[in-house]
Design a protein that fits this description.
Strand order of the largest sheet: 9-10-6-13
Number of strands: 14
Distance between the termini: 147 Å
Largest sheet: 4 strands, antiparallel
Helix content: 10-25%
Protein name: XS domain-containing protein
Strand content: 5-15%
Pfam families: XS
Number of helices: 11
Shape: extended
Organism: Urochloa decumbens
Oligomer: single chain
């Protein structure tokens, strides 16, 4: 008779559980589950559906090193965050207006007959010319005292090699072979000894002149060259010209400029340098370049020429008004606006502080009136304001040149000289004017020319 309560089985010596208690076989990824897996469910649970009728889809193993699993968020989103709409993607910026698609394919035939293709913009491509950024103040070129008088820096001085001694010590002699006798001859080393004392460089005399005295000499000779119309024409037209400093004659202005920059006597260097700059401004040349026989200093843009000439103003500040003649008297002499009439006219225009002086000649009124302002900074500002007012109306220096070219036409019928009032029908003279500069000295009367002198607006100094 069998024991109804058999003893539990003893563990084996190898430590492995018995076969009846072994774990069920591992489920295969590619096949159906093992037979005992379906019956292992409890009796109260529903049996799992069989998967033996389906063909499993093979799946590739995922490498967790390359594709790590996404960790679950530590803090799940709140209900308010879940209701929030998802963020919209940023809009893509439009393509730039300039790109490869704007180019046209073109071909050209070379000299050897081959055809080459290249790309270029179409002829009617709309370029957007963006303004260049302004230059820093220290990079803006200006013809100030730092650029004149021009001078070339001296070449760097190389130190002189020290003289080598004639008798050298035995250890400085020529390398000898052990079999040779102990006699050698001295020789110079391969490298020069640059141990000579250093001498400081000496600047040329043009760089060490007195700036204040140099500016006064330039203004003096600029007035001297412009106040006489006959002398000025001689310089501008060419021919033999004299040196206003030492009296020597030269074949042309170029020779005079070379002489003024390199005078034979250094005692008159300042006067000659002042004449050099005055000649360059008169001729429209570049005074910041060293004059040479190649005449490269004679090339200067027109706007710089005009700026250099308009920089020299007549002092006290004076505005020249043209077209102030009103007609002829019965005796044939010209008449025009007098001093009081011009002062009243300037007051009506809103300019005060100036004194009018009408100019007369042998035939009467010259149609020219000078308005002089105070010889200070306030007077210069008022004179410049009047000149700018006339310039904005196209009645400045250029406007007068254009109107004066048609002076042969009857002045009373010339629309550039006379305008008719639409209300009263009265004819009025159109006034032209500009700030007097050095080239206008020959237009002044002799008394005003004698009393006036020149100043530089670029280096304006009221106390000078």
């Amino acid at each position: 008779m069998k024991n109804p309560n058999p003893p539990p089985p003893r563990p084996s010596a190898s430590g492995k559980p018995p076969t009846s208690m072994a774990a069920p076989p591992r489920k295969s990824r590619w096949g159906p589950p093992p037979p005992g897996a379906a019956g292992a469910a409890p009796a109260g649970d529903k049996a799992a559906p069989s998967t033996s009728a389906r063909t499993p889809t093979p799946t590739h193993p995922v490498d967790s090193r390359r594709h790590p699993p996404h960790p679950a968020p530590r803090n799940p989103a709140s209900p308010a965050a879940a209701a929030r709409p998802p963020p919209q993607a940023a809009e893509t910026p439009p393509p730039p207006p300039y790109g490869f698609h704007n180019l046209d394919r073109r071909t050209m035939i070379l000299a050897d007959g081959t055809v080459r293709t290249y790309f270029a913009l179409p002829p009617d491509y709309p370029f957007d010319t963006a303004p260049l950024p302004p230059l820093p103040h220290h990079l803006i070129p200006h013809g100030g005292p730092d650029l004149w008088p021009p001078h070339q820096p001296p070449p760097p001085q190389m130190p002189m090699p020290m003289p080598m001694p004639m008798h050298m010590q035995p250890h400085e002699a020529k390398r000898k072979h052990p079999a040779d006798q102990d006699e050698g001859f001295p020789r110079h080393p391969k490298q020069l000894r640059l141990d000579a004392p250093h001498h400081p460089q000496q600047l040329p005399p043009h760089a060490s002149v007195d700036r204040h005295a140099l500016r006064r000499a330039f203004l003096k000779y600029a007035k001297m060259l412009n106040e006489n119309s006959v002398q000025k024409r001689r310089y501008l037209e060419g021919g033999r010209v004299p040196c206003s400093t030492c009296g020597r004659d030269f074949a042309d202005v170029h020779g005079l400029v070379m002489h003024a920059y390199n005078p034979p006597n250094t005692d008159s260097l300042i006067d000659h340098l002042g004449l050099h700059k005055a000649l360059c401004v008169l001729m429209g040349w570049d005074y910041t370049k060293v004059p040479e026989n190649s005449k490269g200093y004679q090339s200067l843009p027109a706007d710089l020429v005009r700026a250099n000439r308009e920089d020299l103003i007549v002092w006290p500040p004076t505005v020249i008004i043209h077209n102030t003649a009103t007609g002829r008297k019965k005796d044939g002499r010209l008449e025009g606006l007098g001093n009081k009439d011009m002062d009243k006219k300037m007051t009506e225009l809103g300019f005060s502080g100036g004194k009018s002086k009408s100019l007369y000649g042998k035939e009467g009124h010259l149609g020219l009136t000078l308005i002089k302002f105070a010889n200070n900074s306030a007077g210069l500002r008022e004179a410049a304001r009047l000149a700018e007012f006339l310039e904005r109306q196209d009645h400045g220096r250029i406007g007068w040149s254009r109107a004066h070219a048609t002076h042969s036409i009857d002045s009373d019928q010339n629309p550039l000289l006379v305008e008719t009032d639409t209300r009263t029908g009265e004819k009025k003279r159109i006034l032209y004017g500009y700030l007097a500069i050095a080239s206008d000295l020959d237009e002044l009367d002799s008394d005003s020319r004698k009393r006036a002198f020149l100043k530089s607006r670029r280096d304006f100094d009221p106390s000078d």
